[in-house]
Design brief:
alpha/beta, Rossmann fold, five-stranded parallel sheet, 16 helices, 21 strands, 34% helix
Length: 431
């Protein structure tokens, strides 16, 4: 296991990843017939510079757009595109027990299709395997990243939208295209994502560690909603982005993750098992059902402190004013250790407009009330961080030999904050 001090900070994009984990890993890149194929030269060079082995598969049409010899030169490996080459002899297959597309599929630590055309996306979605790329994809057990690029009208076509949903539901990671001027002269969404973004996602998957392997971890995420009547709710501004980031980081560290997610909250990038909730009661039921054999729970969800005393039947008329009586909810965070005393409990606590000392004090009180192992406290009064934002800044409060210790995680993206939280809690033996 590596400590934070042993992790190398890669300032290409300011991201954390362990250089030792990604060196000598293998990435297979499938290139389809988009004009953006030439951009993959940069990706191959960058991956090679990090000590990663790269194998290229091209569709026949892609090989007519970009010279395969150029990819062979920079990757150092033969480019594959013919499922049956001219010298193919079934006797050699039976003798050597080696099939090219199976061999390359098994080498992959990460398999990426970039650029991915609408045609190839459709074939992958329906399991069609009629060339080297699609047969290899069906044979791989590696994580698969799909990077679509196409005309904006094609991207917005309901058939393409349906195929993208199919791929997401099957566990493929989709890096969606960007807005911009397309090769056809139309401006809109359809450009291949920046190579830096694609490379970061590849590195994240390659750098998967086993630091949390064997741990069953539950993450609650998003905001609860409480009925006023059959169509109206009381809710909060939680987007679930922080919970999704925590779930992703635990997944990347090899844990068995279950995400308890509010129905309309942010989905994680990876195919992580989930159960959905709406109300506080729904969430509490799911927590009780699942924490019996869990090792760790990150209670990130923003749970409503109040609910209406009695939801009104039907729809309340808007013709006159209405008085609602709100009553306090059960504090799920205070019940978790009572149900499973052995579970490691990490609670996220949102406060509004508190100074650092007051925020720490509130976290210390919650630490005692809930018997949690750590409190992650943050101030949600600022618009650039916390609720609905992609960024956050938090304080980690926990006890060492009965003395409270505070660690500040500075302002950063929620992905980076999640990495720092998990890394710090692991190194501090909290997890």
């Amino acid at each position: 296991m590596y400590t934070i001090a042993q992790v190398i900070r890669n300032f290409q994009g300011g991201k954390w990843y362990n250089q030792e984990y990604i060196m000598n890993k293998t990435v297979v890149i499938g290139i389809t017939s988009s004009i953006a194929a030439f951009k993959i030269f940069e990706l191959v060079r960058d991956l090679k510079a990090d000590g990663i082995n790269v194998f290229i598969i091209m569709t026949k049409h892609a090989s007519q757009m970009v010279d395969p010899a150029e990819f062979e030169k920079i990757s150092g490996n033969k480019v594959s595109f013919e499922l049956f080459e001219k010298c193919f002899d079934y006797k050699n297959i039976l003798k050597n027990r080696k099939v090219d597309h199976i061999e390359i599929a098994q080498k992959a630590d990460v398999f990426i299709v970039a650029p991915a055309t609408a045609n190839t996306i459709a074939k992958i979605a329906y399991g069609i395997a009629d060339d080297f790329l699609t047969t290899a994809l069906l044979a791989t057990k590696a994580p698969v990243i799909i990077c679509p690029t196409m005309n904006t009208n094609m991207w917005n076509n309901p058939v393409v939208e349906e195929n993208i949903v199919k791929l997401k539901n099957k566990g493929y990671q989709i890096i969606e295209p960007m807005e911009g001027m397309l090769a056809c002269g139309i401006e809109g969404k359809g450009k291949l994502a920046d190579i830096s973004i694609i490379k970061e996602e590849i590195n994240l998957l390659l750098a998967r560690s086993n630091s949390l392997k064997g741990k069953k971890i539950i993450i609650t995420s998003g905001g609860t909603s409480e009925k006023i009547d059959e169509i109206r709710y009381i809710t909060n501004r939680s987007s679930g982005k922080m919970g999704a980031a925590i779930a992703e980081e635990c997944y990347l560290r090899g844990a068995e993750v279950l995400l308890l997610r509010a129905r309309n909250s942010t989905k994680p990038r990876y195919q992580i098992p989930k159960e959905l909730f709406v109300t506080t009661e729904d969430l509490y039921t799911l927590v009780k059902k699942n924490i019996g054999d869990a090792d760790i729970i990150f209670h990130v969800a923003a749970v409503s402190d109040f609910r209406t005393e009695k939801p009104r039947p039907g729809k309340i008329s808007s013709d006159k004013s209405v008085t609602l009586k709100l009553i306090p909810q059960i504090k799920i965070s205070d019940q978790i250790k009572k149900i499973n005393p052995d579970i490691k409990l990490i609670i996220f606590k949102a406060e509004y407009g508190l100074g650092k000392k007051e925020l720490i004090k509130a976290a210390e009180i919650k630490l005692e009330e809930s018997q949690a192992d750590a409190i992650i406290a943050n101030d949600v009064s600022r618009k650039d961080r916390g609720f609905e934002s992609d960024f956050n800044e938090v304080l980690i409060v926990h006890k060492v030999d009965k003395v409270c210790k505070v660690h500040k995680v500075p302002f950063s993206s929620k992905r980076e904050v999640a990495k720092e939280i998990i890394g710090y809690l692991s190194d501090s033996s909290v997890l």
